[in-house]
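To: structure subgroup
Subject: Chain for Friday's discussion

All,

I'm putting the inputs and outputs inline so they're searchable in the archive.
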Amino acid sequence: QVQLVESGGGLVQAGGSLRLSCAASAASGRTFSNYAMGWFRQAPGKEREFVGAIRTSVGSTTYADSVKGRFTISRDNAKNTVYLQMNSLKPEDTAVYYCAADRNYELGSVRIRDEYDYWGQGTQVTVSS
């Protein structure tokens, strides 16, 4: 079993920045060598949507068009932690942000919510205008 714990959410003014963290752990000592680690978000009354993802083995990233150029995903494999750096935040970025893990990375699947095997509990990000 894999556990994901997000942190770093909060309230920020439009134009500001936040960095979210997602710490992954596994009781069996599993490594996350070729996972897809994704970030999704869900605003009130809306579907959970893809934000971006990173391939843990090589660090390649994919982003939703709505955040491209503003958000950056990175990882620290030694710490089993993935980060979501969010800059130039907008009120429409307000949502609960979730970290997710897919055990087998496939580029064609990283945007698909149901492909992910594990989910964190979410962290609230609120951007005021």
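Points worth raising on Friday:
The radius of gyration is 14 Å.
The chain has a mean pLDDT of 94.

D.
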